[in-house]
Amino acid sequence: MKKHLLGILPVMLLSLLLSASLVFVVQPPCCTIDSEEYVAQADLIVHGGVLNERPIGYPLIIAAVEYIRPPFIRRVTFLLILNLLLGAGTIYFTFLTALALGFERAVALLAASIVAFFPSLLNQSRYVLTEHSITFLVTCAMWLQVRNRPLWGSLAWGLATITRTTTLPVALAQVFFAKNWRVRIVIVLTVLATVWAAGELRMQRNGYRGVSQYDSQLILLAMEVEGPDFNVPSVEYLFGKYPHVRTTGEALGAYTRDAWNHPLHFLKQRALAFWELWGPLASSGNRYRPDEHRGLPARIAIGAERFLLLTATLAGLCRQRRNPVFWQLCLPAIVITAIHTMLFGEPRYICPAVPGMAVVAAWALHRRFGQKTNQAA
Q: What was the pLDDT predicted at 189?
């Protein structure tokens, strides 16, 4: 691994330099309402109290790093440094995953470079949000599974699930790629045990089980969103408009009735959600939140990056459609796209899918251009 680290080290250092410049020089760090709730929940985990509705994975990470934070470094600054380190780790494990799958070193280096300089991942370095944590955990889990470490890989998938609950279908779907029933049992039990432990913590604090109580809000929010526009002033507004909804099942019922009663509006919402995830030109941002406005250069950069990544990934997947490894690498992208198209999309939601897609895209690009270059030489 030391040899591999030396091979990828220049890419990691350059990506770290770009991210650090963006975080500490070009633009100020950004703490959103979500950031404040994650930090507040971390304090509640440590000191006791009723937890809020957010998934507890990222607050657990915040609470853990608080014990190693030097007192002279502000908490937000330390979490941003953690983002940079997790980003570097994601690059490294993307490189190792490609090599472990038997891809050429040039393909592994190209895949790691795609991750290293992917604009959305670089930009997320300045946010105290879950993107770098969940992307690192997903990439680490894929590498551990490829290296035939089912217990540790399943634990990583479990931690990813309690960090972002939409990862659960991806984690459980790993049973279809397992070599035998013993590995399948290990995957299911480890993932579910991790989720159960998170639910037990919420049970002790709040009196009910659950990794997150945010799902019903997301489902209701999906009915109020058109593309990037979140015309929802508060949670109280949502539950005031839908007073009969208190559980995820009731929220799904309201969602289904709304789709049935307003099919054209429903289809428009889903099309705009898909565009937010993968459209070749990003939207200008949320008109109800001016701080999230994107200028034209940012819109072009975000749109171009994801469109090129999606195109190259689809090209590789089509060529290797009978190869289960390629489907395993693309599984996070498939699940994330399906879930957030049916709910609502933001460009940052595709971040956990980038490493797997990068490996497939790098293989396709190397097959298309690298071999021709070698032949010409």
A: 95
